[in-house]
Amino acid sequence: TTGLGDLVVWAVKGDRFGLDEMNVAERGGRPCQIDMSRRFGDEFTVEYDLTPPAPSGSLPVASQAAVAENERRKACEDSVRTAYMATFMTVEQAREFAERMSLDTALMARLLPEAYGNHAAITGFLEITAPENPRRAQALVSAVSEKDLRDVDRFVLLDSYYNTPNALEGTPLYDRYALNPRIANENLTPYKFFFLKVMSDRERREWTADVRLWADWVRDSIEVSGRRNPRNLYISPQAVYQHRLDIDPRSRDLLFVAGCRSLGVPARIDPVSGAVQYSQDGNTWTDVSLDRMAKTD
Predict the structure, then answer these.
(1) Angle ∠(271,188,156) on CA atoms, nearest 5
(2) pTM over 0.85
């Protein structure tokens, strides 16, 4: 049925399991014995060189009963999906919400349906923030990506709304690169409240006035190696600030940008070049190198 290629065979019974490679062509139909000595939670590594089956024009043919069962399951799955999609906010509902909250009707009619099943998180955020500052609330939900509209946590939005200083608010780069919590493809966390607490008043004043001083702190304080992050996953800015050792360069860059945004300074990792940039005036970008050999004068 599978073709004469290699298989990885698993066997499980109770809390024990085992696995092994099986060469179907060489085995010729003989049984495959599996050692069941492993238990759930065991850590181990195996390496197999797997040979795929040779191309064949003969494929297994499903029975009429199997086809009918598959069609029944597809219809059931479609009904579950359709029922869930029926809970999404419609354009009409978005307009009604905007009118009730005195928000931009056209903007809400576009954004809220795009939130799909996450529209309650977005409207919940707007219900809290729009009455006090509708411009800022709408600017934040407009700045996040379409993907983030669909899964961002309401508390992440509230963190950015309340904990992003507004000295540069109104400049071209502020909404997208300071107010917005999204930096790269990291898991979103409410990092701005964290930095508000761990940075002293003096540090916040000095680093906001001259971002190069914040760059110097990151350069001097974060030991970069990445030995413990071989998959190059982003470590949260909070964790990088707290641990500071064996940090990969990508996560260090994320820390710098998160710190800038927590100071109300626009910053980003350029999606094309990968350059780390900040904007002291909210209008123009300045590149910064965080390698220790490139310390600011």
Answers:
(1) 125
(2) no
